[in-house]
């Protein structure tokens, strides 16, 4: 028996496009995480695009490093990074190899495997909050740093995969500034989400960190 259309894995050609085409097209797709404990499936409801060398908000803006090397590789791979010394975040690399663009997966609705996610997200008051934010999404799905570089086009039984799912009507897609991005990249309307979906995270503008003053010193 053949797979239903919405269960078909997305091909690498889907990711081998400009990031501003891929990002909104990921909404409604099904992200599959296969673990030793079982399988989780999540409907993507919020994403952000990061455009490499032309985007001051991107990790790849200043060139290749050990941390962002996966972004410079072929499309259709996971870029997992550690942030604030506590959390991982999950991105999908897209665009031609070498251009280092990617899509941050910000939020989604867990369709299958919520029982596996709840123990990892004990602070969530309801299931709509299990993956409401990029760090929460990665935590709920148990996405460790070891998945950095995973090929999401390797098949539905790979550690990470993306299925066709059910994209929303274009009229339901909204766009605006990215959360927490400051500087020259702050105004880019490269955050995309499904309107009125309860799993979408709240927008928060960039807040510059205040320099801590040493009380033992005085200004000259």
Can you put this structure into words, describing what you see?
By secondary structure, the protein is α+β, with helices and mostly antiparallel strands. A hairpin with a 3-residue loop joins strand 3 (78-83) and strand 4. Strands 1, 2, 3, 4, 5, 6, 7 and 8 form an 8-stranded antiparallel β-sheet that branches. The chain starts with 11 loop residues before the first helix and ends in a 26-residue tail after the last strand. Helix content is 10%, strand content 25%. Residues 213-220 have low confidence and may be disordered. The protein is globular, with a radius of gyration of 18 Å. Belongs to the DNA glycosylase MPG family. One of its GO terms (molecular function) is hydrolase activity, acting on glycosyl bonds. InterPro entries: Formyl_transferase-like_C_sf (IPR011034), MPG (IPR003180), MPG_sf (IPR036995). Its EC number is 3.2.2.-. Pfam families: Pur_DNA_glyco.
């Amino acid at each position: 028996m053949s797979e239903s259309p919405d269960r078909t894995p997305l091909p690498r050609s889907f990711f081998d496009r400009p990031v501003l085409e891929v990002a909104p097209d990921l909404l409604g797709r099904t992200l599959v995480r296969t673990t030793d404990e079982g399988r989780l499936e999540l409907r993507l409801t919020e994403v952000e695009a990061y455009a490499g060398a032309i985007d001051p908000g991107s990790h790849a803006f200043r060139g290749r490093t050990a941390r962002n090397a996966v972004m410079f590789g072929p499309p259709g791979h996971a870029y997992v990074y550690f942030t604030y010394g506590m959390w991982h975040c999950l991105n999908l690399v897209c665009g031609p190899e070498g251009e280092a663009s990617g899509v941050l997966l910000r939020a989604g609705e867990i369709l299958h495997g919520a029982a596996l996610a709840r123990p990892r997200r004990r602070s969530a008051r309801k299931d709509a909050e299990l993956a409401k934010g990029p760090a929460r999404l990665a935590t709920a799905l148990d996405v460790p740093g070891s998945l950095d570089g995973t090929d999401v086009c390797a098949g539905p039984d790979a550690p990470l995969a993306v299925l066709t799912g059910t994209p929303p009507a274009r009229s339901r897609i909204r766009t605006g500034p990215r959360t927490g991005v400051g500087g020259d990249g702050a105004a880019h309307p490269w955050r995309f989400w499904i309107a009125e979906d309860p799993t979408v995270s709240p927008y928060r503008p960039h807040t510059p960190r205040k320099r801590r003053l040493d009380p033992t010193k005085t200004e000259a």
